[in-house]
Amino acid sequence: MSNRVSNLFNIKYPIIQAGMVWNSGWRLASAASNSGILGLIGAGSMYPDVLREHIQKCKNATDKPFGVNVPMLYPNIQEIMDIIVEEGVKIVFTSAGNPKTWTSWLKERGITVVHVVSSVKFALKAQEAGVDAIVAEGFEAGGHNGRDETTTLTLIPMVKEQIHIPLIAAGGIATGRAMLATMILGADGVQIGSRFIASEESSAHIAFKQAVIDTKEGDTQLTLKELAPVRLIKNKFYNDVQALYKNAPSPEELKALLGRGRAKKGMFEGDLQEGELEVGQVSGLIHDIKPVYQIVTDIIKEFEEAKKELAYF
To answer: What digits encode the pLDDT tens for the residues 57-102?
Structure first.
């Protein structure tokens, strides 16, 4: 399936496995890359030495391209970037920050740079900064999200209209039909997160994987906009946040409730009551835990079948 995204990353299919915190370790990334897509290690939940270990193990587990997703708000960002260069990683996805900060530095070291955005405004800023491609992520997505609540269906054609570099769609994509739909709207490829949480190779706790499978329509909500918007499964922690909102809390009061380690507690340690459970709206379409290879196979099969169906219109 040759196009601008598959050619950019030298992969078989134009699909990126999202670099999710507490989910995307070396096992998931290497399994994704071995399946013909681009695997990403999620650096956002890793100390520098842990990231180095995951990169080294991923290199031993696959001879295919893989990358690292780096939220630029990371406190040890220089150390993280140095490790990426030292370990010979050739693809970096950046998010949660100004792309001008690191794009030139990375590209000067021979690294392909992709930036994640949630609006046309930031897509244009990323293109101006010199990134090689853009991930445009709609409001449906899991984890941290855009404040404007622009849906993927709306965002992709608006961004496509304004940029000339490769465009990767994200948010609400877990099936071959959704992949085809976003590509018809102008995307060159897709980034998929939530579907890979419920994979055998994900580093998520089995209790969280089961919670994703059990999630139905309306069971997730975007919240904590005053800090950083995040889509969560509705659980005790989510309900505590909503109760606090009734008292018009300050950002400091929200931070106090959030505390430290909520995401780790929920997704990695499996505390379904007090933990932060980040997942997209599309979780309502995820019904089982499968190996990554089978997930990719199913997506591509459905994509090809849907293309054939369109020929009848």
So the answer is: 999 999 999 999 999 987 789 999 999 999 999 999 999 889 999 9
Rg of the chain, C-alpha, whole Å: 18
Cα–Cα distance, 307 to 170 (Å, whole number) = 20
What is the 3-class SS of 54-76, one letter each residue? HHHHHHHHCCCCEEEEEECCCCC
Whether the full predicted model's pTM is greater than 0.85, yes or no, is yes
- Per-residue pLDDT tens over the stretch 196-245: 999 999 999 999 999 999 999 999 999 998 888 899 999 999 999 999 99
* CATH label, 4-203+284-310, candidates 3.20.20.70, 3.60.110.10, 3.60.150.10, 3.30.70.20: 3.20.20.70
Looking from the CA of 217 toward its CB, the CA atoms found within 13 Å total 0
Per residue in 102-142, pLDDT tens? 999 999 999 999 999 999 999 999 999 999 999 999 999 98
In one-letter notation, the amino acid at residue 74 is: Y
How far CA 288 is from CA of 26, 192, 209, 210, in Å, comes to 22, 16, 9, 8
